[in-house]
Amino acid sequence: MDTVKPKILYEDNHILVAIKPPNLPSQADESGDMDMLSLCREHLRTSRGKPGQAYIGLVHRLDRPAGGLMAFACTSKAATRLSAQFAEKSAGREYLAVVRGKIPEGTHIHWLADRNGMVRAVPEGTKAAKRAELAIEILQEKDDLTLVRVTLKTGRKHQIRAQCAALGHPLWGDQRYAFGLSKPGEQLALWGYRLQLVHPTMGEAMEWEQNPEGGVWGKFEIC
Fold first, then answer.
1. Residue 71 belongs to some domain of the structure
2. Could you tell me if residue 2 is inside a domain?
3. Distance CA 165, CA 183 (A)
4. Which CATH number covers residue 39?
5. CA pair distance 191, 157, nearest whole angstrom
6. Is 38 helix (H, G, I), strand (E, B) or coil?
7. Is residue 1 part of a domain?
8. Residue 199 class from Cβ within 10 Å (0-12 exposed, 13-18 middle, 19+ buried)?
9. E runs forming strands in the chain
10. How many domains does the chain have?
């Protein structure tokens, strides 16, 4: 097992909240690389002295190149209840992103279609296209970059990256949707910084925040 240890912000018998580093898969994929779910499972196994594989449930995801807050379920009951919150959008997630240029604020709606792993904005009515809605708030501008807060109204694959690209303002460091603007090695500037949910057994509203550090984020005063 990989010796990397996840940064845990909260843990009890039912849930675990941790920070996913950029470029780490949320769960195991075809790459065979270490993933966040496995790291958190190993943390539970060793910290609680459980033999074999400790139970841990994935209830939402972050894109591999993105970083930020993730919640995991430590019991099957918690997994069912937390998954329902994320599916029903009663769990709140907000993101910070750095985009190129000055993106228009407000609510944006596109129809997105996945074509072999690439998500594109397409005309409404296109076969297999799904409605995508998000809200953008400008926080700071510097040079030709803009720091924004993004609130998802729907949960689609690569939604923030695809919609910002469709608006003509791709994310800094996006190697997939910036269409040649990003240089090799630039890190995607997308971070899940706020997470809100209701505890699956106690019924209490809970909230965590974690700001990104380093890289292009250092151009802005994030507080």
1. yes
2. no
3. 16
4. 3.30.2350.10
5. 15
6. helix
7. no
8. middle
9. 7-11, 15-20, 57-58, 67-73, 92-100, 106-115, 118-122, 130-142, 145-152, 190-198, 205-209
10. 1
Helices (H) and strands (E) in the chain, counts: 3, 11
SS3 216: helix
* 3-class DSSP assignment, residue 195: strand
Q: Could you say which DSSP state residue 142 is in? A: E
How many whole angstroms separate alpha carbon 2 and alpha carbon 38?
9
Q: Which of 89, 105, 211, 101 is nearest to 152 (CA)?
A: 89
Question: What would the two tokens of residue 66 be?
Answer: 């993105």
- Token reading at 60: 């939402």
Tell me, yes or no, whether 144 lies in a domain.
yes
Comparing CA positions, the residue from 150, 145, 147 lying closest to residue 181 is 145
**H or E element, residue 180:** none
Cα separation of 165 and 173, whole Å? 12
Q: What does the pLDDT look like over 151-201, one tens digit per residue?
A: 999 989 999 999 999 999 999 999 999 988 888 889 999 999 999 999 999
One-letter amino acid identity for 196? Q
Quote the domain boundaries for residue 20. 7-219
153 in Cβ contact with 121 (< 8 Å)? no
Tell me the residue length of the chain. Answer: 223
Model pLDDT, residue 223: 62
pTM (2 decimals)?
0.93
185 sits in the region (left: phi over 0; alpha: psi -120 to 50; else beta) called left
